[in-house]
Amino acid sequence: MGTRFGRRAADGTYEYHDTKESLVEAERSENSEALEGLFGFIGLLIGGVLAYIALLKLGADWPKWLRFGLVIVGAGGAAYALARLANLIWNLILTLMLLGVLYGIGSLIWKAV
After folding, report:
1. Distance CA 90, CA 96 (A)
2. How far is CA 42 from the centre of its chain?
3. For the chain, how far is it from start to end, CA to CA, in angstroms?
4. Three-state secondary structure call for residue 5
5. Please, are residues 43 and 81 in contact by the beta-carbon 8 Å criterion?
6. Can you tell me whether residue 19 is helix, strand or coil?
7. Which of 27, 81, 23, 21 has its CA nearest to residue 51?
8. Tell me: the pLDDT tens digits for 9-67?
9. Do 109 and 54 contact (CB within 8 A), yes or no?
10. What does the longest C-alpha to C-alpha distance in the chain come to?
11. What is the pLDDT of residue 6?
């Protein structure tokens, strides 16, 4: 009998994996799903507001059902796009934060010298 690896999943269950790589991949997948949900929700809000504002400027005299449908489509499209790009956006945010910290440290050293 080989070594088994286990962890508690986000839903409270305990899952077992035969390899360490499988365990790491399960954790990464779970974290990625949570990140996709967060960015999808943000995209839903931002997309709906942007679609609403655009329709106020462009289509104020259009029928109500069409405006409502376009706001829903805009919100859904932005949510889908941000959810798909969640890992890329998160890595970009972390990179910018790292560059900001390095710039701050560099500027402190530059002023001190």
Report:
1. 10
2. 8
3. 62
4. strand
5. yes
6. coil
7. 81
8. 666 777 776 777 776 777 777 778 888 999 999 999 999 999 999 999 987 788 989 98
9. no
10. 72
11. 73
